[in-house]
Amino acid sequence: MVHFDFENSVLNQANNVTAAIESPSNIAYESRGSNQAIKFGGVSSPNQVNVASDPSFTFADEITVAYFLKVNSTMGMDGYKQTVPYGAHDILMDSDWKINNRLFTSATDPSRIIMYYPDATQNDGWGRLVADHIPTGTWVHIAFVISKTTATSYVNGVVSESFAMNPTDFSTLATGFSIGKSGEWYPLNGSLDDLRIYNRPLSSQEIQMLSVK
Predict the structure, then answer these.
(1) Which domains, ranges and CATH numbers included, belong to the chain?
(2) CB–CB of 63/199 below 8 Å?
(3) Tens digit of pLDDT at every position of the chain (213 positions)
């Protein structure tokens, strides 16, 4: 398991290892009720948290990724590394660039987060699980739950999308991952809290409990 509560630190509560902040002087924290959350500055102040590989990261073919997110601005980066009013924002990316949570904003459509994962049945090799209608300026709880047979996304404890799927491979998360951007790409303009990654699919009741923490 991975668990960052971001209480003025980037300590992984699950293994008691502190991650590395790319630019410590540029990181900030803000309140989410009685909790603290980590704040990323987007294209004007890009930053990321680098989580190193660890033997305790035992991910195989099932996973749950859950966190609170507040989008602070839609301004972000496009596919040409240009700053645009409605850009993409990376929340999480594994070091092999195979597993990703990416926020997409738009002037005409609701913002959405897509979880990408390996899927050999797709022409481009990527499977996609969508959490839709993500607001700006408001805390929202996001969860992606993938078992050997089913993929389900949740927004504030309510199912956003669900479909049947074949088993896939999440083992590359064990090699480490980044939070807040992916190298030089798609810096997040938003805040995160209570990031959890499990090596099992949580039940809908467990997701609902996390969504009100």
Answers:
(1) 2-210 (2.60.120.200)
(2) yes
(3) 899 999 999 999 999 999 999 999 889 999 999 999 999 999 999 999 999 998 888 899 999 999 999 999 999 999 999 999 999 999 999 998 889 999 999 999 999 999 999 998 888 989 999 999 999 999 999 999 999 999 999 999 999 999 999 889 999 998 999 999 999 999 999 999 999 999 999 999 999 999 998
Q: Is the pTM of this model over 0.85?
A: yes
Closest to 199 measured CA to CA, from 130, 114, 50, 99: 99
What are the structure tokens assigned to 116, written together?
């990408």
**How many CB atoms neighbour CB 149 within 10 A?**
11
Query: Which residues lie below 8 Å from residue 154, measured CB to CB, with a gap of 6+?
Result: 131, 141, 142, 143, 144, 145, 160, 204, 207, 211
Sign of the CA dihedral running 75, 192, 196, 184: positive
